[in-house]
Specification:
The complex is a heterodimer of chains A (about 350) and B (about 525). Chain A has about 350 residues and is of the alpha/beta class. Chain A has 2 domains: about 35-135 and about 265-310, 3-Layer(aba) Sandwich (D-Maltodextrin-Binding Protein, domain 2), CATH 3.40.190.10; about 135-265 and about 325-345, Periplasmic binding protein-like II (D-Maltodextrin-Binding Protein, domain 2, 3-Layer(aba) Sandwich), CATH 3.40.190. Chain A contains 15 helices and 9 strands. In chain A, strands 1, 2, 3, 4, 5, 6, 7, 8 and 9 form a 9-stranded mixed β-sheet that branches. A two-stranded parallel ribbon of chain B has the order 1-2. The chains are: A alpha/beta (about 350), B mainly alpha (about 525).
Chain lengths: ~350, ~525
């Protein structure tokens, strides 16, 4: 029994010391004047860390990061208000940047470098946010079953010929939401709802799994076509697992709607926060991320498309060739996000 | 119990208040007006979400009870080959987060898995549609991951039951099985209920596993309301309703229990004696214990190991070991802190002899039901309030820094709010078995409350405390939503990093981190098991 009481006391003592120790540490780091920039980021890619390290080496500015879902970060920014330590909000969807801007959490940045290197369609005209990379919502198909000549567009996925053959993940997914939002923006709410209902009618099964699972299900014969993000296909083709590679390579890839409005794309981007304590550093980091040589690595490692023109793309993206991009204003993806989710719910797209 | 407002009452009231701060902060939202989002949900999806939630919750809790009670009973009353091993190994499934198990099982059986590839080759077919991602399977997976909650508490309760009553039943001609249903099970009721409540709360809180399997539950709609509709208030409101429902269940249970007492007043009672089993009977008992362990731990760990071998070269580096260190320190301190306050609360409730403080301690455990992301909001708001108001008063920013969101204090506080129930439940159900006459005897003999606590209560609570520590340690290790939003800059844990990789559809890479969580969970379980057996001997 004695032993146990001792253990108990030791642990109590331990936690007490730990608490004390900790506050000392906090104090110490505070006193050292260091150049830093604080990120709230929704990007979860390994390569980001490497690039930030190089940035620190070049500039002496330390990059501090908290990663979470954009919505959680936006909520935290809102709560923290003027005392927020964050300098830069990074998301993987234009809609969330729009939302942060609407809530007054971002500030306009006027940087000639950024304005010159990032094409208009990938950034907010007033400089509230900037796209860093983009990704396409494409259609993949079973290349053994589907003739590329009859390959569908977004709209024709609702045609009777695809009945019971369409695979797609749940409507909770932001990329599906932004695709539907782009349709609401360009074709109106009724057309968009008709489309969502049509896709639900043609679904091979209730939405489940992630984008890779949709491709695996094509191979399993559950369905013939799937809506997925471009970089997942490339990631599968480059997988360490030969079975996954086989699935990736068996996929036929279509960039839909080349004959009309173009393929839907979404950006991963960033905006400087309104309360940013290190605004100059934040802008410096943005400029660094959009410089040509960094763009190649930043976008390439995850098979995303670089926003800066003339930057070399990864080999797979090169092999898929150039494609026509839907030039709908990125801010509209955010503006119609809410309507898109309501439409999904009404259409029964789980 | 008479109503007294002594120092112990105020201590218990203080601890309870701490837990209630974030909950009350959130509760205020329930009075906000219904938004159009709310109407929209009611019109479209809410009914099916609620049905799904009930189906999964009931199914899981039923299966978890079957697994948990049967294994606890087998380990407590039979002697069979492997009993010693099972008595601690059955806790192991707890170290696997529900979403990891769900992803793993999907991976084991999906198109590119060795299982399917091999089967297809064997049968000489190209395509095969075998879908693991169904509601039945998620119920099975969650129940094998969660049954240890029931197992631990029930085993503890069975071990405190006296053999006298069972002996009496046997003498009166009841079979062992029958006396289990008529004597042991009813006696273990408080333990079973608290185990079941934890399982239900865990299921209600799950987001990752359910979403991946395409099953929309109440929690999914809470997150949808927040994240997609950007309506934090409605989201908080929904989770408050969820909390109310669970609260009502708890109150109903307490009412039904009524005046029934579960403490055995006979101090000379001997503990249960184990029957030695051999041959076929022993084999059956072995299977009963082995099956949930196989599904809930052995199979997923084999798959995780296979994935790790594939991807370790990409994941294991210096940063990886930093993650291990972060996770361990965080879990040790957070669980020690929570357990200490849990002990203090349990003891002060008992010493205060005040019904109100007992009720308050029950209310304090509802922090567990809040979906992690929502609980985080409840913590953020008061901390930011303190920060923004005090920072004007005290310019010494160094001192204040410890108190802001994104400090370890905020994070530790959040764990405390959320996991206190895991400390309270096992201690409560042990304490309920111990007649308060013992305390009174000690007091009559001149021992102070404090001395009674150290000499009498603490030793009795020993196993419950160790159990609580393990539970909270493992839970902090795998916790995601609170940690992700409340953590300091540049602070990653294994669970968070693993979740990020999984979200990025790099399941095989994330296996390395999940595996460390599993191993990390093993160490304290083994250590404490050793400690416990040593003391018995």
């Amino acid at each position: 029994m004695l032993k146990f009481s001792k253990l108990f006391l030791i642990i109590s003592l331990f936690s007490f010391i730990a608490c004390n120790n900790h506050s000392k540490d906090e104090g110490n780091t505070e006193k050292v004047e260091q150049k830093e920039v604080n990120l709230y980021s929704d990007r979860h890619y390994e390569v980001d860390n490497e690039i930030f390290e190089e940035f620190t080496k070049e500039t002496g500015i330390k990059v501090n990061i908290i990663r979470a879902k954009a919505d959680e970060l936006i909520n935290r920014l809102e709560q923290e208000g003027a005392n927020s330590p964050a300098d830069l909000l990074i998301t993987v969807d234009a809609g969330r940047l729009y939302r942060a801007q609407e809530k007054g959490l971002l500030q306009a940045i006027n940087s000639e470098k950024l304005n010159n290197s990032i094409p208009n369609q990938f950034r907010n005209p007033e400089g509230y946010w900037f796209g860093l990379t983009y990704r396409a919502r494409i259609i993949v198909y079973n290349s053994q079953k589907v003739d590329p000549a009859t390959a569908p567009t977004y709209e024709s996925l609702t045609n009777p010929e695809w009945q019971g053959k369409v695979l797609v993940r749940s409507s909770e997914n932001i990329y599906n939401q932004s695709l539907l939002a782009s349709m609401i923006a360009t074709q109106g709410a009724d057309k968009a709802k008709e489309w969502a209902t049509g896709v639900v009618r043609n679904m091979a099964r209730n939405p489940k799994g992630n984008d890779r699972d949709q491709m695996k299900s094509i191979m399993a014969g559950v369905g013939d076509v799937a809506l997925v993000n471009s970089y997942y296909v490339a990631n599968m083709i480059n997988s360490d697992d030969s079975a996954q590679q086989a699935v990736g390579k068996a996929m036929g890839v279509i960039f839909p709607n080349q004959d009309d409005r173009g393929t839907h794309v979404n950006i991963s981007g960033a905006g400087v926060t309104k309360s940013s304590p290190n605004k100059d550093h934040a802008v410096q980091l943005l400029e660094y991320l959009t410089s040509k040589d960094v763009q190649e690595k930043f976008a390439g490692a995850n098979y995303e498309y670089p926003v800066v023109a003339g930057v070399k793309k990864s080999i797979i993206l090169e092999s898929w060739g150039e494609f026509k991009i839907d030039t709908v204003n990125m801010a509209l993806l955010g503006k119609y996000n809410r309507d898109a989710i309501m439409t999904f719910n009404e259409a029964g797209w789980q | 119990m008479t109503r007294q407002y002594n120092i112990w009452f105020w201590i218990s009231a203080f601890i309870t208040t701490l837990v209630l701060i974030p909950i009350v902060t959130l509760f205020v939202n329930i009075f906000s007006a219904d938004s159009e989002v709310w109407d929209h949900l009611v019109e479209t999806v809410l009914t099916s979400y609620i049905t799904n939630t009930l189906l999964v919750a009931l199914g899981t809790v039923l299966l978890a009870l079957i697994f948990g009670i049967s294994t606890a009973w087998c380990v407590s009353v039979f002697n069979f080959p492997g009993r010693k091993f099972f008595s601690w190994a059955l806790i192991l499934p707890l170290s696997i987060p529900g979403y990891v198990a769900a992803y793993t099982y999907a991976g084991i059986f999906d198109f590119t898995s060795p299982v399917q590839t091999y089967t297809r080759d064997l049968l000489g077919i190209q395509t095969m549609n075998f879908d693991v991602m169904t509601m039945e399977n998620i119920i099975l997976i969650l129940s094998v991951c969660l049954f240890p909650y029931v197992y631990i508490i029930c085993k503890n309760s069975f071990s405190k039951q006296s053999s006298d009553m069972l002996d009496a039943a046997r003498i009166l001609g009841q079979s062992k099985l029958k006396s289990f249903f008529t004597i042991a099970l009813p006696l273990a009721r408080p333990a079973i209920v608290s185990g079941a409540v934890i399982v239900i709360m865990e299921v209600l809180n799950d987001y990752g596993a359910m979403k991946y399997y395409g099953i929309n539950t109440f929690t999914v709609s809470i997150c949808q309301v927040w994240f997609s509709f950007n309506d934090v208030n409605s989201a908080i409101k929904l989770s408050m309703y969820l909390m109310l429902i669970v609260l009502i269940f708890i109150v109903i249970e307490l009412l039904f229990r009524g005046r029934a007492k579960y403490s055995s007043s006979n101090s000379s009672s001997k503990p249960l004696e184990r029957t030695r089993l051999k041959g076929f009977q022993a084999f059956i008992i072995f299977l009963i214990c082995f099956t949930p362990l196989l599904i809930g731990f052995i199979i997923p760990v084999i798959q995780l190991t296979a994935w790790s071998c594939q991807t370790a070269h990409k994941v294991i580096n210096k940063a990886f070991w930093q993650l291990v260190q972060n996770s361990f320190l965080l879990a040790i301190f957070a669980s020690a802190f929570t357990v200490l306050l849990g002990i203090l609360l349990t003891f002060s409730v008992r010493a205060s002899k005040n019904k109100l403080s007992k009720l308050l301690s029950k209310v304090a455990s509802i922090g567990y039901i809040l979906p992690g992301a929502v609980a985080a909001v409840g913590v953020i708001i008061p901390f930011i309030f303190i920060h923004n108001n005090l920072i004007q008063l005290i310019k010494g920013y160094d001192i204040m820094r410890g108190l802001i969101v994104g400090s370890f204090i905020a994070l530790g506080f959040a764990y405390f709010v959320r996991f206190l129930v895991l400390a309270l439940n096992p201690m409560d159900s042990t304490m309920e078995k111990v007649s308060s006459n013992i305390d009174d005897a000690a007091r009559v003999l001149g021992a102070s409350n404090l001395k009674t606590f150290f000499k009498i209560n603490l030793p009795i609570l020993k196993n419950a405390i160790l159990g609580a520590f393990i539970l909270i340690f493992v839970n902090v290790l795998k916790e995601i939503p609170l940690t992700i939003i409340l953590r300091p800059f540049n602070f990653d844990t294994l669970a968070i990093k693993g979740f990020e990789l999984a979200k990025n559809e790099q399941i095989a890479e994330s296996a390395n981190l999940s595996l460390i969580i599993v191993i990390a969970g093993l160490i304290p379980i083994l250590f404490l098991n050793k400690l416990m057996t040593e003391q018995k001997g």
